[in-house]
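Technical note accompanying the year-one report. For the benefit of new consortium partners, we illustrate the data format agreed upon in the data management plan: each record pairs a sequence with a structure-token string. No post-processing was applied to the example shown here.
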Amino acid sequence: MKTQFLGLFICFSLSLLSCQKWNRNSCDGAICTMMFYSVGVKIVDSNDNSILVDRVETYYKNKLIHEETYTTINSFESYTIIDDSDMSDLPLNERVNVQFKAYKNNVLLGEQYFSVSADCCHVNGYEIQKMIID
């Protein structure tokens, strides 16, 4: 029994020694899931009725980082602010504000800032994702 415990202790100790300290500014060695994350927003009027738009844009530091055009009715009534394909446009492990704009018939209906971040694997949103357009 002592030799089994000693063997487990040695294996555990060696595994701890082989681990490198995690560097929050690097994604080297990151193990990510295959899930694809997105941060969405529901666009409503002041009575909480859904508003359908045909184009949305998201900017970070005045640079367009995400754009979607909707040619059919969006049955989910939710629009993407950012998704995992936009990670390279955001700083690593830093909460930032992005500017989201909604258009209907090429007319800007509204714009709002949302707090988001990107880690080594996925994007994240922080507040309730609702945009109210009067």
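Partners are asked to follow this layout when depositing records. The first strand starts at residue 38 and ends at 44.
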